């Protein structure tokens, strides 16, 4: 039937009639069925994708919420750690100040010990000199005692001389008395000699007493010097012991000084590290807070995505319902004609499917292997007009001619084969050739018997 533009003077009844082309109508009908089937398949894929997106959005939102809760907990813990770190930094600063004071006091103690050591060294030198002077004094006193002994010996000799002189003067007086008047002058001389002798004897006695007194004093001095020498020696020994103790104190002071210096340096480094760590924690808090803001924004986007996905699912449902209505309307044309005109031997098709699916090489699910095996199988059977294979997720490994579907998960032949059955379909319009066909599918099994994929082929309905 031909129509003209509105307003034309030519009536519908006046238009030339075209003869009805049943073949063209049937092709149109077949292609419309294919388009409707493809539309249904696409709608099913969109619906599954929407369901998957919704599930992903739900899981992502749940994870984002968990991440948000964890992030807030992390911020709280980081804040607590930051507060502890500030306290640690304050304690480290206090330790550093105490260490610096200890270091200053250690320096002062070290200087004091050094000064005491110097004083002890000087005192030791003085005591050594005192001991030397004491020994010199002892030697001189001993020499003086020797001289006093010599004086005493001389006094003894003088006493003997005085005794002899006295004796001689006595003899002279006796002889002068015998001489009478002639010896008077001699008697006077003898008398004077006696007086001199007596005076000499008195002087010698006094000298002896003085020498004895000096000897006694010298002996007292010697004893005092000896006591002083012992005291000096004792002082020297004590000084040496004190020097040893001070040396030990000095060594310990040096070690303490080194340790205090190390503690001061460590406290300074600790303060610096605490400051750096505080800055890093502060930066971490900022990063976590920024992440929380991003998570909140992501949650908003997830919610928006969920709303958009819901809208997409509603559109998909409407489109699916429309496609199913279209498919049902199209199938009402010539459905009985397809089933009535074509017959096939089911057992032959089952054997043909077993021959193909039993090829061990297919279990590797390698595209090049599938291309080689399936192409050879198709060329060996002229009645086959399409051959393909699918993975266990519905995607195509190989298809000749190229598949008219993106994914076969919604197809009955794929579902039945994945369940382990060999499936033979009724006659329908092929999505690849757009002509009536019969689809045969079978499971691909690995060496354990597990189904790892599907292999199938279409046969021309007229040749079955």
Automatic annotation (TrEMBL):
Residues 49-289 form the Methyl-accepting transducer domain. It holds the Pfam family MCPsignal. One of its GO terms (cellular component) is membrane. Residues 278-308 form a coiled coil. The keyword Coiled coil applies. It comes from the Bacteria. InterPro entries: MCPsignal_dom, Sensor-like_sf. Keywords: Coiled coil, Transducer. This is Methyl-accepting transducer domain-containing protein. It comes from Candidatus Reconcilbacillus cellulovorans. The lineage of its organism: Bacteria, Bacillati, Bacillota, Bacilli, Bacillales.
């Amino acid at each position: 039937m031909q129509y003209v533009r509105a307003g034309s003077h030519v009536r519908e009844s006046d238009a030339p009639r075209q003869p009805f082309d049943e073949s063209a109508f049937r092709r149109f009908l077949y292609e419309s069925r294919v388009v409707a089937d493809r539309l249904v398949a696409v709608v099913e894929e969109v619906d599954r994708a929407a369901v998957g997106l919704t599930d992903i959005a739900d899981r992502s939102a749940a994870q984002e919420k968990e991440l948000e809760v964890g992030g807030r907990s992390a911020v709280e813990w980081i804040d607590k750690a930051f507060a502890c770190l500030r306290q640690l930094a304050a304690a480290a600063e206090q330790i550093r100040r105490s260490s610096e004071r200890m270091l200053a006091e250690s320096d002062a103690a070290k200087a004091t010990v050094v000064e005491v050591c110097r004083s002890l060294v000087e005192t030791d030198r003085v005591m050594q000199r005192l001991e030397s002077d004491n020994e010199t004094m002892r030697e001189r006193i001993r020499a003086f005692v020797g001289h006093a002994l010599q004086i005493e010996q001389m006094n003894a000799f003088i006493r003997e001389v005085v005794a002899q002189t006295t004796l001689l003067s006595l003899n002279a007086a006796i002889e002068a008395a015998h001489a009478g008047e002639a010896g008077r002058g001699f008697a006077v001389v003898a008398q004077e000699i006696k007086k001199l002798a007596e005076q000499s004897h008195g002087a010698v006695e006094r000298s002896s007493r003085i020498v004895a007194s000096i000897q006694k004093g010298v002996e007292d001095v010697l004893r005092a010097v000896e006591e002083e020498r012992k005291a000096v020696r004792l002082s020297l020994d004590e000084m040496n012991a004190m020097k040893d103790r001070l040396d030990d104190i000095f060594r310990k002071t040096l070690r303490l000084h080194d340790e205090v210096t190390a503690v001061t340096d460590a406290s300074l480094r600790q303060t610096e590290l605490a400051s750096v760590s505080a800055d890093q924690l502060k930066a971490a808090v900022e990063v976590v807070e920024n992440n929380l803001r991003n998570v909140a924004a992501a949650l908003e986007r997830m919610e928006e995505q969920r709303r958009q996905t819901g809208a997409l699912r509603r559109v998909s449902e409407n489109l699916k319902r429309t496609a199913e209505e279209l498919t049902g309307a199209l199938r009402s044309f010539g459905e009985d004609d397809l089933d009535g005109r074509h017959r096939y031997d089911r057992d032959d098709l089952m054997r043909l499917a077993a021959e193909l699916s039993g090829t061990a090489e297919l279990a590797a699910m390698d595209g090049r292997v599938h291309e080689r095996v399936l192409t050879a199988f198709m060329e060996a059977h002229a009645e086959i007009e399409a051959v393909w294979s699918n993975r266990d997720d519905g995607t195509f490994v190989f298809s000749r001619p190229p598949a008219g579907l993106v994914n076969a998960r919604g197809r009955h032949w794929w579902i039945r084969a994945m369940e382990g059955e060999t499936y033979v379909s009724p006659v329908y319009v092929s999505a690849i050739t757009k002509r009536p066909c019969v689809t045969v599918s079978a499971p691909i099994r690995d060496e354990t018997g597990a189904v790892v994929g599907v292999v199938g082929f279409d046969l021309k309905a007229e040749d079955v």
